[in-house]
Amino acid sequence: MLSTKELWVIPIVTTLQDENVRTTFDKELTPRVEELLELIEQSRDEGNTEQELKQSLQLYDVLKQRKQQDADVFEVAFGIARIYDDQLEDSGTATIYYRDALAMLEAISTRPSVEGAYMRVTTLGALAMCYENLYVIFAYCRLVLVNPLSFDAPTSGQSEDATNYFNDAISAYEEHCDQASKVGSSEVDVSDSDISLLLNLNATAAMIHYHFAGNLLAQERWDEAKNVTKIALELAENSSMSTEELEELQHCIHELWLELE
Asked: What total of structural domains would you count in the chain?
């Protein structure tokens, strides 16, 4: 299977990882928030992940004290989760902040939008992958550290949490399929930004389907896994994936199909 770090396509639109993050914050921010943004940017430029995380957590606490919560808090929570997930490889702690981000997104989403769908699908997909990774670690510890002679240790695909989040992510994507289909067929004006987000959404959904197939394979649900990979290919071919990313995904899926024959 492909590594999530190689092909987990498109993080959220604006997070603390982005150079233009300060543009997402309004004019009412306190000097403390501005100070933290400067420090976070400096730590990131210096490659000091530990310090960046510490400052990001401080910023998160400050923003949560505001009377009116908005997308800022979601973006900071998601950014913290990505640090734990991608840089520190701490899936357990990452799930805490992904769930916080998801809860905040549900609270601030007042109407359907391409951006809202993209954020929701991306966050649910990230949660699914975190729980999948956690179960891999659990299975390894049980097999190798607890009972090296046991051959019936649980596999990553048996993780109920991972399966549920994969299903939630796919359901969230499917809810917005009608809106995505309007890009090529409707006379309704669609902004370039929305078109770009729809293509990114397809790319993210393709990778979620691909990794969900791995989850299904671990449960020996062969036919379902093959059907899911077909959907992944179709989505990837109509997405923002680069040629190299698409070709790698196609190769991995075709190799998988050969193994299933």
From this structure: 2
